[in-house]
Amino acid sequence: HSLVNINNGGTMVKTPTFYVFKMYIPHHTNNAKFLPLTSSPTYEKTNNLNAVDVAATVDDSGIVNISFVNIDLNATRDVKVTLSGDNRYLFKSAEVVTGSSYKSYNPFGQAEQVNIQTLPASNCKVNGNVVEVKLPSKCVAMVRLKPEPKNGVSKMHLSGTINDIANAFSVKSGANGSIIVSSSVSMETPVLLSLYSADGKTLIESSKSLNAGSCILGNNIGKGIYFVKITGNNLNLTKQIVVGK
To answer: Which CATH code is given to the segment(s) 163-243?
Structure first.
């Protein structure tokens, strides 16, 4: 399969294969080396092939890249990966390439039907050296993990009181009608940030890997009262924000 298609007029489109190659770049950079797979879970066979295949690399900075292929055209697949050794890991990113149909492609002169998307926060969970992923049907996915710092700055364990958890996050309006979400802790799994208008309409949904610090949820938000909902593993809270620009 080609990486790009070019028509007689010189117009180029990126194929689904292009996006798979792009997503796999971490497997081939920063001196990444493939990790041995000592065991493979048994899956229902699809046309005499494993429904799910897995590959993993680790680079010089300790980042672990795990790629998955689910060839099942209809069913999602739950996969659990246990990394050997004493290291604990935090979520870094999760991406997926898939389409509404196994026949999906990127046509000339139209919006792309297949490209790299963020894997929803609810599909990925990291706990120490164990990764659990829910793979959409007919997809290729990449989950990246970073070593947990050993200097005491670590992931958030949501075991405090409701007030403790709520106080770990804050939202404020910034320049140019932006909304800034801040966290005093690092989360071990991605969280879903949602922005709602006062009448309950969903305006923005974004899956983020929240480390201690800030991220921008949206720009050029009009004046008004909004609500930011933060959901993730054992986390569900809502913050009100007033934007005036």
So the answer is: 2.60.40.3080
